[in-house]
Amino acid sequence: MLKNKIIGLIGSGNMGEAIVGGLIAAKATDPKNIICADIRAKRLQFLKETYGVKISSKNTEVAKTAEVLIYAIKPQMVASVLMETADFIDMSKLVISVAAGLPLAAIEKMLDKETRLIRVMPNIAALVKEAASAVAAGKNADTADTDIAMTIFSSIGKTVLVKETAMDAVTGLSGSGPAYIFIVVDALADAGVKMGLSREEASFLATQTVLGAARLIIDSGEHPGQLKDKVSSPGGTTIAGIHALENGGIRNTLINAVEAATKRSQELGQMTAAHFSEPQ
Ligand SMILES: NC(=O)c1ccc[n+]([C@@H]2O[C@H](COP(=O)([O-])OP(=O)(O)OC[C@H]3O[C@@H](n4cnc5c(N)ncnc54)[C@H](OP(=O)(O)O)[C@@H]3O)[C@@H](O)[C@H]2O)c1
Are residues 102 and 202 in the same domain? Predict the structure, then answer.
């Protein structure tokens, strides 16, 4: 799929490295087809030594060389780096942004030229190749382009194609979602300790339970509600626990969390778009 395309990364921090590591581990491309730029020389040296990729201290060199160019810098850096690299971007390149909350329209406005653009919202589980990534295509990106993006981000987890209008909801659910689950695991572990387990035992059991439940939903293909019914025996322990969860408003709380994060993402997107409209 990637057919020896040169993949360039501008910004080689956490997400950049996760992508590089994912591509190489999945054998989706050869390290020699990847070129990374970053402001930190040590970081680049580390990537070269660890993954065998090419490196450059110049964003412009990577922008010039790459056929697929991924911007993996912090959202607040994107405007200036786009300005810096804009001369090397044209319709021959596929440009991918992973910047959270940065609308494609803002990038298009900044570049002020026709571009094959794709926006991707991965999450922190990219670090363990279990990211949930949503991919949204800009107006000039065709199916071959989205296939390339899906292939790249499949190497760090699972992908779903969405309309860009869904990206705030994606951010509220899967972007912020790992933090919600960290709290769930932490709380379950606290509960285990309260009930007399050691911290180590409780943390292990809580974590493995969340992992196992997610794996069961995926592998069985069953609705989580059906699985919940299956494990709740009449008058048993699980239904007693579920009753307590419902009393505490667990569903309402989670829905509120995703709604609040989605709204915050919308607000931040509007602020970013306004920032992009200002002269740089
Ligand atoms: N990490 C995640 O889980 C996650 C999830 C979804 C989306 N994202 C998105 O991914 C993007 C990158 O996030 P990250 O977590 O990988 O950030 P990060 O670890 O800070 O990586 C960004 C890298 O870019 C470098 N950099 C800063 N300015 C630069 C410039 N002008 N030219 C080249 N490189 C520059 C940074 O160096 P300095 O540290 O010296 O600034 C850093 O090494 C963000 O837009 C974020 O919204 C991340």
Answer: no
268 Cβ closer than 6 Å to some ligand 1 atom: no
pTM (global) more than 0.85: yes
CA distance 130 to 156: 6
Q: Is 167 in the pocket of ligand 1 (CB under 6 A)?
A: no
For 75-129, give the DSSP string: HHHHHHHHHHHGGG--TTSEEEE--TT--HHHHHHHHTS--EEEEEE--GGGGGT
Domain co-membership, 68 together with 157: yes
Domain that holds residue 103: 7-167
Give the domain CATH number at 131: 3.40.50.720
Measured on CA atoms in the order 159, 161, 163, 169, is the torsion positive or negative? Answer: negative
State pLDDT tens for residues 100-115. Answer: 988 999 899 888 899 9
How much is the mean pLDDT over the chain?
Answer: 95
Domain boundary among 111, 133, 167: 167
Q: What's the pLDDT score for residue 280?
A: 58
Question: Does 168 sit in the ligand 1 pocket, CB within 6 Å?
Answer: no
Ligand 1 atom nearest the C-alpha of 99 is 45
User: 242 and 183, same structural domain?
Assistant: yes
Q: What is the pLDDT of residue 37?
A: 98
138 with 246, same domain: the answer is no
Rounded to the nearest angstrom, the distance between the alpha carbon of 231 and the centre of ligand 1 is 43
Same domain, 62 and 158: yes
